[in-house]
Amino acid sequence: LFAGMRAYLSAFLNALTVRAVIIAVGVGFFKVNHRVLQTAFPAIYFRLGSRTILI
């Protein structure tokens, strides 16, 4: 019984870790892409509060 629970918990935590890594990598790529576009095309970005709108 405990071995099954342990295996299930281990698999669940591994899945959460994989999802967290995928999300972190995606956010990192988005930030780099956003920064590159802002420096490459600064004239077409307008800041509105915490949002950036590309025109």
Task: Please write out the topology.
Blueprint: H1 2-40, E1 45-48, E2 51-54
Antiparallel strand pairs: 1-2
Structure, described:
The chain is an alpha+beta fold. It has one domain (2-54). The protein is 71% helix and 15% strand. It has 1 helix and 2 strands; from the N terminus they run αββ. It has one helix at 2-40, and strands at residues 45-48, 51-54. The chain has a two-stranded antiparallel sheet. Strand 1 and strand 2 (51-54) form a beta hairpin. It starts with a helix and ends with a strand. The mean pLDDT is 83.
Helix content: over 70%
Question: Separation of termini?
Answer: 59 Å
Sheet of most strands? 2 strands, antiparallel
What assembly state would you assign to the polypeptide chains in this entry?
single chain
Name the overall outline.
rod-shaped
Strand order in the sheet with the most strands: 1-2
- Share of β-strand residues: 5-15%
**How many structural domains does the protein architecture include?**
1
Order of SSEs: HEE
Stretches where pLDDT is under 50 for at least 5 consecutive residues are none
- Gyration radius, rounded: 20 Å
Number of strands: 2
Mean pLDDT: 83
Number of helices: 1
Query: Which structural category fits the helices and strands?
Result: alpha+beta
